[in-house]
Amino acid sequence: MKKILTIITITSILFTACKKDNATPDFDEQNLASLSVEFDNIVGGRTLTFDNTAVPYTNATGEKFTISSIQYFISNIQLTTTDGKQFTVPQDSSYFLIKGADRASRFAKVKVPEGDYSKLTFVLGVDSLRSTMPVDKRTGVLDPALGGHDGGGMYWGWNSGYIFFKFEGNSEVITNDQFGDPTGKKQFKYHIGGFGGYSAPTINNIRTITVDLTNAGIAKVRKDRQSNIHLFVDLMKVFNGTTTFSIKTYPTVMFGEFSTVISKNFKDLFTHDHTEN
Amino acid sequence: MKLRYIKYFLVITVFAYACKKSEHIQEKVETFLGFQKPKNFPETAYNFANNPVTKEGFELGRMLFYEPRLSRDNTITCGSCHIQSSAFTQHGHDVSHGIEDRLGTRNSPPIMNLAWNKAFMWGGGIYDLDLFPISPITTHEEMDESLENVLNKLRSLDKYKSKFKAAFGSEEISTGKFLKALSQFMLMCVSSNSKYDKVMRKEGNASFTTTELEGYELFKQKCSSCHAEPLFTDNGFRNNGLVPSSINDLGLYTATLLATDKYKFKVPSLRNLKYTGPFMHDGRFLTLDAVFTHYAHEVQATENLDPLLNKNGIRGISINSDEKTKLMAFLNTLNDEEFINNKLLAEQ
Ligand SMILES: [Cu+2]
């Protein structure tokens, strides 16, 4: 008995000792360390594969579809520590283009103060300020010259703005007339953008997403390791988030009223699976 | 639960599991028993005579398994992709995630019951556990290091000199000793304390519920010809009718170049599915539901599809939703919480 007590005492001393040397560093905006946020695209219970015609995906309406392309902008990343301190990643290093076809692009890498973070906030899209900035501020992934509208580009030349979320694929349910895809390719195209308008207010599809990290693991950001917040992005939820819609009824959605219905589903796409610390 | 530990290791350990990276006190009272074959398991395939598991060898192996110096930039350990709480897989990752965020092409399989394995990797190619670690250490997307460099890094550290001496009798750090120590650790990663095992060994009053028992019967009819008891793999390579992956991974063919091996992959164990997702060689299914949908509706007539999945011209396995529920209940009895919580296998 006495021995057990000694052991318990030693153990608890060690516990306290250890806590100290593993303690959360003081929050210091100059003391930055790296953090990545992983945007891992999935489709319901399966991983994302392009053009998998042999075994297509099935949405909530029962429509079979395949995916040929998915790209979206993530910007304005903000983190909140377990004790409520907020840090906003400086705008100039906070724009990321996640491309389904380029697996390396799925990590948004930022620098934040060392600390323990339990909340992540970001914008799906490009904020209105950046969308109206002079062209010399539009570098990197925001360069309007990248790709071109048909070549995977994310800039709408005709409407001076970015496509925030570009999702394309095929479904047999799409008709060959002007209500479907008159080219007969049975393609669906969702190009969602719209930052609220240059001068006159128009559609605003900028969506702010907040993810609570408490349950699946807070991010412990320290200089000597690499913390990675691993999110699943379930593309199935485009069709059945807050609003369920049918590909047959809406095969093409670009700059129109219905785009706001789709963008309201965006928040349902993101779940936090785990964090690597 | 305590009883189990005693059975395998007879070690009473007092643990100050306060933090990963600082020192722990451990008070070891009795001796380490080495590798013990569970009563309900068959004979092992590993040649233990050539590498008997000792306490010192096992502890050295464990240290190496969690040693970041095994990777080029000292960031990645074996344990980064084989995480104990996920039954030594990389939870949530379809394909492995290695050095500098490079992604592999295959899903990290569990380090579990390897003493009974005759071939390693999803597509075979390695037939001796002792030779296995060379593959991840030197692979570009995994650890991207050379074996020689790793050994040199270890040679420069005093703690390894003494550990190698304790384990193998001299301070010399050689390829052979290094690999054998890693094997000793991996061989001790035995998962044999699921509910299923306790029922089979008639321990205490362990018994299946009605649903589990019905699921067990269905399992024997529909699954166990490939996922054979008690390891839940027949140790073979087969094609279970998945659509070829986007990189057209040819599986066993890559190692043998025999046309009859195209699209055949190692039959994985079904133990610990609760922790090992996502599933299949490329982690394409994130849920067991998606796996059942595959067997029931999506089996493809690819080259070398296993004849068991193409009987009388009907592809796949018939599974209705009631049967699925029962099969799920049975599969749930294969999860071994003691394995994933076994502190002896954790980073110290
Ligand atoms: Cu992850």
Automatic annotation (TrEMBL), chain A:
Instruction: Give the Copper-binding protein MbnP-like domain ranges.
Output: 34-244
Q: Per UniProt, what is one Pfam family of this protein?
A: MbnP
Question: What protein does this entry describe?
Answer: MbnP family protein
| Species the sequence originates in | Pedobacter ureilyticus
Automatic annotation (TrEMBL), chain B:
Query: Record keywords: Cell inner membrane included?
Result: no
Domain of life where this protein originates: Bacteria
Task: Please classify the protein's predominant subcellular localization into one broad category.
Answer: periplasm
Q: Which organism is it from?
A: Pedobacter ureilyticus
MF-aspect GO terms: peroxidase activity
Is tRNA processing included in the keywords of this UniProt record?
no
| Pfam families referenced in this protein's UniProt entry, alphabetically | CCP_MauG
Q: What is the protein name given in its UniProt record?
A: Cytochrome-c peroxidase
In which compartments does the protein localize?
A: Periplasm
Location of the Cytochrome c domain: 210-335
What are the protein's UniProt keywords?
Answer: Heme, Iron, Metal-binding, Oxidoreductase, Periplasm, Peroxidase, Signal
Q: What is the lineage of its organism?
A: Bacteria, Pseudomonadati, Bacteroidota, Sphingobacteriia, Sphingobacteriales
